[in-house]
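# nightly structure sweep
# worker-07 picked up a monomer target from the shared queue
# config: single-sequence mode, recycle default, output format = structure tokens
# input follows
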Amino acid sequence: MNKLLKSEILTNLLWTAFGIIGGLNYYSKGEYWIFGIMSLIAVLYALKLFKSLSKNKETED
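# output follows
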């Protein structure tokens, strides 16, 4: 169970980084629709990451 939570946290962190880096790349090119979509991906996975972290903290206590 603990290994599953750690892999979920890592996956969410990677998707968040992908959204941020991709969004900044498209923003610099002036492609604002794609920037919005990539930023939305980053925000959604960041929220999912925080939920995973809080769930992980609860299981450790």
